[in-house]
Amino acid sequence: MGLKVLVDVTAIPHDRGGVGRYLDGVLPALGERDVDLLVVAQPHDVAGFARTVPAAEVVAAPGPAARRPVRLAWEQSGLPRLARRWRADVLHSPHYTLPLAAPVPVVVTVHDATFFTDRAVHSPVKARFFRGATRLAGRCAAALIAPSEATRAEVAREADVDPGKIHVAWHGVDDTVFRPPADGDRARVAASLGLSGRRYVAFLGTIEPRKNVPALIGAWVDAVREQDDPPALVLAGGMGWDDRVDAAVAAVPAHLTVLRPGYLPLTDLPGFLGGAEVVAYPSLGEGFGLPVLEAMACRATVLTTERLALPEVGGDAVAYCGVDQPSIAAALRSLLADAGERERLATRAVTRAATFTWGRAADVHLAVYEAAAGSGPWWRRR
Length: 382
Prior knowledge:
single chain, Rossmann fold, 43% helix, elongated, 13 strands, alpha/beta, six-stranded parallel sheet, 16 helices
């Protein structure tokens, strides 16, 4: 019998954003290790986790917990009861919050510290909630897991947490999905976007203030407006709350093409990313930067910034720019004009992306669970 770990995945949103991708990657890898997993999920996620983590026992949270206020209340009451009933050794809360009445040590994943350092890119209510949750986790959890050294340092400083309590587990990339696409995949995705035979610059991510999309739009216009055959700009991903994007798109000259297809099917992403001339991700800062890693795995030429964790992911396999429109435009113009540099970066990107594995992330998680086990609930440690 391995260590008994209860993992609460009820915070995963329907759109399967970064937190969902993290759990979809690390849980199957943990299931291949010597650990007994009980996964508690929203009812609509139970079948999926039972399929991808066959070694785990997967149970459903109460249906009303699909609503956030109810979920948070259930986390404080129902989740501790489940941990006690299952006789868990460790409880893993993978999205900032934790149950204060948990009868066992709790490990918490904190994904990002920009709620402290760049408050303007989050809604005030969201930023306030996650600052409080991070501070509480720092005080009460047996250990924290962060996806990067940058996040570890920021959380330690901003939330006043002992750095030794925070363990770095870089995300991995699913190489069964994110891989260099075949010519047919690139052509199929381009056709689905109405871009057959046309070049394009790609962005993939939630369109929210910290992704810096208005600056990207303006920079792309500056970089390509004088070209005879200017590449389109494709902004793929869900709409966040950046109300400046519509105005930026409305200002695009009529002879240029900008597309906003929304979410793309997961199976289309390799063709979309690998088929772009450049994947541009000029973020103001990321706790990790999974879209950059996934683009690298698809043999894309990536342009991003040196903010927070992004250089940990990109290394020397991506191009960098500042976050202001002129800097983005200059870097984008240079890359679009230099096929040789794009090829060099794409080749390096595949090699570097292969070093980021969910197996390695799972090994860090297991080591943290083992160190936390036996330490008892937080009130006994104080």
